[in-house]
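Field reference: sequence -> structure
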Amino acid sequence: MIVRHDVFSRVRRSTLAWIGAGILSATAGARAELAVAPPPMLNRKTPKTGELLPVIGLGTYRVFDVASDSSESAELEQVLKLFVAGGGSVVDTSPMYGRAESRIGDLTSKLAMRSSLFFATKVWISGQKAGIDQMQASLRLMRTPRIDLMQVHNLLDLATHLKTLREWKRAGAIRYLGITHYHSGAYNELEKLLKTRDYDFVQFNYSLAEREAEARLLSIAADSGTAVIVNRPFAHGELFAKVKGKPLPPWAAEFDCDSWAQFFLKYIVAHAAVTCVIPGTGKVQHMVDNLKAGNGRLPDAKFRQRMIELIRNL
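Structure field:
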């Protein structure tokens, strides 16, 4: 049995051609594809409020750490346009990502798209005043009076920042508060924290290469009513290295999948506890490909097991 979403249409194969410096023609091709068949994005409810969020978000680590007058920044502008046109909204960043917050603020202000986006960033410093200063800097850099989700990155000085975040939430400076980590060594601590039900969101790594969260963490997040954002969906490129030069299995078409990126992302979003996954990209053609993972059918339990076995046997 395939998981179906009645409002979704089958996603056709992308015909985008990517030619080095041909960013403008590639962008035009991507726009044309979305314009001809704008695919509806699967949304998931945030447990605490019921707010709907698209399952495919956008990570900014490294890819948004670019100069404002660079060719990379010009392409990021097209990436953001396509992201919104394709139904995306969650943009995740951090002060530790270099110039990423500033690029997000500049580009979304220029494109007048702040109201279409869900801004998530982080506090990653010790001390109450230092944390407040850092979060205020994020507001300035991202050119917004309010952050949708503020997360304590890697649980650093959590108790101190949690007090501040609760005050900011009451004051309306943030809408949600959360915690993050990026490796399984922190899962025991995350589990304990989620059971307190103090957090609206939790962010952690999960992929076909890093499946440890399936043992307990995902179910505990669901039981505690905590929305889940997934980072490292490609395991820092490990998954692409595994499948390099290998054809996509024909049965992937049974859940509307026509690329390895979609294969990896659909495995993640097929888990009911996942609210959103945030693959990072600064490339137009990759943005189009990633968005398509949020369309059409998702793999059911039997197909997910086949996906696990395929990757395990490579």
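Note: The chain has a mean pLDDT of 90.
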